[in-house]
Amino acid sequence: MHQALARRPRVLVIGLTAVTFLDSTGLSVLLQAHAAGGQDTTVRVATTGEGLAQRAIALTGLDQLPPVFTGCAAALAADRPR
C-alpha cells in the first residue's frame, strides 16, 4: 500500500474480492490508506458485495470512507464519464 501511494496515483483501488476474512487489522489498513491518500489520491475498496469482508466493512461503517464498490471494474469506472 505504501509503495503504491508513494507514486501518487489519482485513484488507488484496494481489491478485496478474494478476501474471505477481514479483522480489525485489515480494517485499520483501509483507514490508513484512506488517510494517506490525502488530497492527491482517491482510495476505493472493491469487494464481492457479500461475504465476511463486506459484512465487517458495513458493520463498522467503513463502507462510506473510503467508498466501497462491488468489483474492481466498478471502482475504477466510478468517475469516468458515460
Please name the defining characteristics of this protein.
4 helices, alpha/beta, 41% helix, 82 residues
Structure description:
By secondary structure, the protein is α/β, with parallel strands linked by helices. 41% of the residues lie in helices and 17% in strands. It is built from four helices and three strands. Strands 1-2-3 form a three-stranded parallel sheet.
Question: TL;DR of this structure?
Answer:
The chain is of the alpha/beta class and 82 residues long. It is built from four helices and three strands; from the N terminus they run H-E-H-E-H-E-H. The chain has a three-stranded parallel beta sheet.
Low-pLDDT stretches are none
Large-scale geometry:
globular
If helices are DSSP runs of H or I spanning 4 or more residues, what is the number of helices? 4
Mean pLDDT: 90
Main β-sheet description: 3 strands, parallel
Total strands: 3
State Rg. 12 Å
**From the helix content, strand content and strand pairing, which structural class follows?**
alpha/beta
The secondary-structure element order is HEHEHEH
Percentage of residues in strands: 15-25%
Sheet with most strands: strand arrangement: 1-2-3
Query: What is the helix fraction of residues, given as a range?
Result: 40-55%
Distance between the termini: 29 Å
